[in-house]
Write a structure and sequence with these properties.
The complex is a heterodimer.
Chain A lengths: L1 H46 L6 H5 L3 E2 L3 E2 L5 E7 L5 E4 L13 E2 L2 E2 L1 H5 L1 H4 L6 H10 L3 E2 L2 E4 L3 H11 L4 E6 L6 E7 L11 H5 L11 H4 L9 H11 L9 E3 L2 E4 L2 E4 L7 E3 L1 H6 L3 H10 L2 H10 L25 H8 L9 H12 L3 E3 L4 E5 L5 E4 L4 E4 L3 H17 L13 E7 L8 E8 L6 E7 L5 H19 L3
Parallel strand pairs in A: 1-7, 2-8
Antiparallel strand pairs in A: 2-3, 3-4, 5-6, 8-16, 9-10, 9-21, 11-14, 12-13, 15-18, 16-17, 19-20, 20-21
Chain B lengths: L1 H25 L6 H30 L3 H23 L5 H21 L1 H18 L2 H7 L7 H18 L1 E3 L2 E7 L2 E3 L1 H19 L3 H20 L3 H19 L2 H21 L1 H11 L10 H13 L22 H9 L1 H24 L3 H25 L17 H32 L1
Antiparallel strand pairs in B: 1-2, 2-3
Helix pairs in contact in B: 1-2, 1-15, 2-3, 2-4, 3-4, 3-5, 4-5, 4-15, 5-17, 6-17, 7-8, 7-9, 8-9, 8-10, 8-16, 8-17, 9-10, 10-11, 10-16, 11-12, 13-14, 14-15, 15-16, 16-17
Chain lengths: 482, 442
Amino acid sequence: MKKKHDADSRSRQNRNILRLTYGAAGLFVCMALYFGWFIQFESENVIGNSYNSRLDQFSDRIVRGPILSADGAVLAQTQTSEDGTERRSYPYDYLFVHSVGYSSDHGRTGLESLANFYLLSSHINLIEKTVNELRGVKSPGDQVVSTLNLKLQQTASEALGNYRGAVLAMEPDTGKILTMVSQPNFNANQVDERWEELTAKDNTKAQLLNRATQGLYPPGSTFKIVTALEYRKENPDSWQDFTFDCTGVYQNGEDTIRCYHGEAHGTQNLIQAFANSCNGAFAQIGLELDAARYRRLAEQLLFNAQLPYSMVYNRSSFAMGEEADDWERMQTAIGQGKTQMTPFHNLLLVSAIANGGTLMRPYLIDRVENVGGQTVKKFLPSAGGTLMTADDAGFLSHLLEQVVAIGTGSAFRGAPYAVAGKTGSAEFETGKETHSWFVGYAPVEDPKIAVCVLAEEAGSGGQVAAPIARAVFDAYFAMDPQ
Amino acid sequence: MANLVTTLSRYLMILLIAIYTYYNFRFFAVPSEAGRNRLCFLQEVCLFLLLALAGAVVWLQTDDERMILFFGAQALFFVLYLTLYRVFYHNASRLLLNNACMLLCTGFIMLARISGERALRQFVIAAAAAALTMVIPFVIDRTWQLAKIPWVYGLLGLLLLFVVCVAGSTSYGAQLSISVGGFAFQPSEFVKISFVFFVATMFYRSLDFKTVAVTTAVAAAHVIVLVASRDLGSALIFFLTYLLMLFVATANWFYLGAGLTCGAAAALIACRLFGHVQARVEAWQNPWNDIAGNGYQITQSLFAIGTGGWFGSGLYQGMPGKIPVVEKDFIFAAVSEEMGGVYALCLLLICLGCFMQFMLIATRMQALFYKLIAFGLGAVYFVQVFLNIGGVTKFIPSTGVTLPLVSYGGSSLLSTFILFGVIQGLYILKRNEEEAEHEEET
């Protein structure tokens, strides 16, 4: 009897041991799969990190590959001299220093940093690689083809002229960044020689700062996009009935809000107030808005939030809370006050409007090719989030179209393509000229390009920033007749 | 030239270990003794070829003739170990011996690359441990009294852990070792084994509620002392091993469920209460937030694995030295970086093979005492490998345990030799029994 009982419990124990063994083997298999997944898919995103010093070693065997523009120009290349020393050179000196960046003794920035791994990998065939290895010759690294367009970049830089500021352009339906200009800039070939001067404490030019993605500015009237959307959301049925009688000066208690140069706009509905950028009308709207909802909308539009972007940038901030007084509410509604925004973020916002509310993830690398031009890796457009409903986007595009049709966007009247956009003239210090903003896209019926311009201390958006944007649009449609 | 040899040999080494690993599992599908012996022989050929290749690379890269001597000594050691074991015990499990040698060999290669001095030290300890533990199967076969002294195992183990907790020296925030005659000695590595013996002897006596309660109390005492020493990895190993042994012995699902629930609750509380636990969990959840601080080790490990890719950078072509404590807890990352992700996966599969063999032996043992010992040691081995590789690859939070036979460290090495020796002993015991029965029948 005892023996039978023992045999029973033994078989039960063995069954349980087997169960546990299968469970354990299953865990191991999961771990192995995870490990494989990491190596195959995830590792690429990880190893480009600047903390990974391993990549530097690759350059012992590989000549760093070149970076090309979308239209085939060489933007960065490594030149090897007779005695074998290598030098990274940038044929366009200043032009791409904030997008392609530089690779120097003082670190790497821009695409030189982001694409570091690709530039130091070589996809020539294995035999050739082996022969090189035997002869002790370095293999050529892969070349990175960026989305940047040389012609547009040159146009944008020339149009911005001597102003400090930024010009950005991207395709709203793909997220490809076509242009990224930040001024003042510096010669990428002279980073090491000029390092001390660039980083000196008394250097007020801040050339190292990429104003396009890192510069924080008051958004001025371009922020009326957010304010107008919030007003419509809070008054879905009655926003069309909005009227405001503009005398050029809006008085609320002791506070005074002036329209640009004190211009009196007369009786304005919401669309007209937006098109003419009437500060009084929007200050009054600001007093009516629900501060908590306003803030939620701003955050939904990526204020105080991370952007879907893998290079250096600063977060825009929307600071107004429910405790804000009337003055702050009025200021915030017209894009003054404590709100701060990067030109890059403003570009993304207007691109999302152009793209029916969906923001495409902005990117700068189109593809990686081996030295023979065969594609090794292609980057495809992907959605970076929905900022607003298609209905909201439709409403805002209508407002933006009216800016050009009847309002401050006169710079685009008569263009062979239809533009929608918003100007802005942001005050930042009493007694100084305003920062000049423009955000917009074209053509209205099927947006192909979105542009953001910020010119520091340049005056009104309509007179300075808008013509710069026009130059970029003109250049774009001249080479791409769609 | 050296670079080319390194590049070529890395593919060959991957091929060799892949073949080896394949045979490791093919073994079970081969019924005949002769066929199995042939497979094991081929495995040994792979092992020695791999060692020779690695030796050549290390020699070329360091340009140090003594390395030839060192790898020659390793080859000699493996030949002697594999032969002598089978001379003394003709029924020894050849597959298990091979696996132990392959894991050791990988460890030697990687350590020689990271630090020649440490590799030499590891080698000397391995040789001594191999010689010492060769008597274990003999002892197990002859000494039935091992099953009669639970309190010796239990109290001795607790006492050792307690001494470490009070007087141990601190490394990486945990009290792990005590110094005896100049040697830093890590008792928890050995108490793992005595603990399994303790639990097995207790359950072998009786499975009534009182015995279970007493055993649980002593097991809990082990875990608590370890937690107090901040040795979380070991605490987890003890806890899970006990729970699984209890479940197998009693076949009671309630114990397993209740134990796991309590364990999870304790883990949550520990996470809230202790800063160091929380730091580990945060470093696991998002190491990229704090690359320079808490996340440093794990991100360096991921850089190593990711940069090495499937085929590795080749020996001496990576930077395993960037990972803190790479030669101990993070050796898996170093192997993956320089010898390749495929090699590392094979290593994982070899460990899995060892574990499955342990379990197979456990199911074949008749007496509950032996069954539980085989199972318990298997559980210890499994949990340890899982915690180590899982931690290195960011599959789970890192707990700071070694990879048996591969990681650097005398205590870990000796205790794993003991563990493998005991399992060999059980296997030999069983085979001898079967042989005797077979002879009686004929």
